[in-house]
Amino acid sequence: MRELFPRPVFVLGQVEQRLLTEGFQILAGIDEAGRGALCGPVVAACVVFPTSLAFPEGLADSKQLSAAQRERLYPLILDRAAAVGRGVVDAQVIDEINILQATLLAMRQALSQAIEQLKTPPELVLVDGNQSIPDVVLPQRCLVKGDARSAHIAAASIIAKVERDGIMLGLHQDYPGYGFDRHKGYGTPQHMNAIAALGPSPVHRRTFLPS
Q: What is the mean pLDDT of each run of 10 residues along the chain (211 residues)?
């Protein structure tokens, strides 16, 4: 049976191709990881590719890749990018200012760090989702499902995911009873059972937990 409203088919990099025809040469892509987790930080990344270099082969939305594929692409992105910025906002701040504001703060940190690495700032910032980053003077475009459409955002999604997973592996060493090495802080049954048995750890987001 045919769908009445077929899902759009996105081609990674189509955004860059269109923007190139509009005259944009230097683009930045921003994405985050960990927004929906129950603990640990939200991590954002900003990636700027030089227009003269091809994107790494196999680049895709981090959610569509295995951990091994993300680990393979991670150094390729770092090698080919003109700039890579990171932003990390921990659980305590998330509880204080809410997850949306914490995510935007991490994105702003990542963009600022990337700009510091460039001689010329990006002409356009591509942000995954539908929320622009406040207090940024550069032009922005929000892209829903941007990590499936923009190579810059896809690369940022991989950097953010790999780096956050690394943080969660470190937190697993500090709080081994919760299984952070397996679920990376998301609300799996195993994680919920551990919280019920042990109580929340210092890195849990109290505003995310059931009362």
A: 44 86 94 98 97 84 93 96 98 98 98 97 96 97 94 97 98 98 97 97 96 73
Q: Which of 149, 135, 147 is nearest to 104 (CA)?
A: 135
Q: What single-letter amino acid sits at 57? A: E
Taking the C-alpha atoms of residue 102 and residue 93, their distance in angstroms, rounded to an integer, is 7
CA distance 86 to 136: 16
CATH number at residue 122: 3.30.420.10
Contact 13, 29 (CB under 8 A): no
Q: How many residues does the chain have?
A: 211
Tokens of 88: 């990390």
pLDDT value of residue 14: 85
Show the domain range for 135: 14-163
Number of domains in the chain: 1
Query: ∠126-91-141 over CA atoms, to 5°?
Result: 10
3-state secondary structure of 30: strand
